[in-house]
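Let us practice reading a record.
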Amino acid sequence: MEAERLLTASGAAFEMSAIEKIEEQFASLRIAKRSVLSEEPAYLLDIDVSGSAQSASSRFVAVSCSNKSIRVYNRETLNFLREYSSCPGTLNGVRFAHVCDSLVFSACSDGMVKCWDIRLATQKAAQVFSGYPSNVFISFDINCSDLMICAGTEKVETDTFLVFWDARGSTDCASTIREPLGVYSESHNDDVTKICFHPVKPSLVVSGSTDGLVNVFDINKDNEDDALISTCNSDSSVSFIGWSGKDYEQIYCTTHDEGFCWWDLAQLDTEEPIMLLRVLDARDAVCIENGSLNYLVGGMYHEKAGRLFLIGGTATGDVHLISCSAAGLSLVGTLPGGHSATVRSFCWNPAEESLLTGGEDAQLLLWRPGAVERSLAKKMSMKIASSVQKRVRVHNSSLKNRKK
């Protein structure tokens, strides 16, 4: 008993020291670089950084913008390098290939996923992955081995799809069109808002939808029924999904009404409940002294700390880091003074302990520990016509509930 007590105490001490270290790191973040405002300002909706197997650090940053374009920047300087568009279609999401850091992907509302090679001075896509005629893609991801792409569709009449392609040799045959390998069509009944492959297991993928369901699939299985490992219900429209925990055996989601759900898939074959935490409204659950939480942006799992964190913020651009535990959500720290409007996207680099944020003020910011910003671009608050705002649908509570 004494040994157990000591082990528990030492584990708690380690957890506290890990969280305290994260608090210190976050508190020390300062703006190192700020992107120059574009001639055509836009909301920055999604961010990804390149990572090469041959390189310890990333070279490029890609941003998905509300003006239907993808912008690529130098990772260190935030100098603008390239811009790609798919007009009249709208581009949704942005991802770099994991092995070749010059390949960048985005899903398009015209029913295609496109891949560009930023080494080439051309607007033409190096590879196009074509869907079916009615497909409108609003989410996608590429797996950790760069062998498979999955895209989620808007609901058209009664149909909602997850569409899959073989992504091998994405630049071998320039500008050829790839047909899908197949689809899943039975597991969601509304827009598939998010797709996220497992960080290290290439056959596992999780999808989230406006129908409130978060589904986990093993795409090595022969058919959709066998592939569906778990169906979890957030009871609201899913805005963000991710993997967390030791060996990434947990999944979580945020919702468009600022809810949060967290499940442990390791408990699927046990008598224990898989729900780790459900927060109906994070705005009420997180206590912020002399401040407020207006929205959640998404989450990230910090491997060294062994802890899941959420990123949230205020309408005036403050960035909040929120710690997740079975006991609830708690504020770790706040980064004020960077953005002047709602923050819509972020990307955390654990190796460098740096943070990228993008917002409705059209600013891309790089935060680093102890940094000093040498040139201040003018912060501005933007009002953009609703026609180019990111579509956000409110969850319809009348949809059928399927609970795990």
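A brief commentary: The first strand starts at residue 29 and ends at 34.
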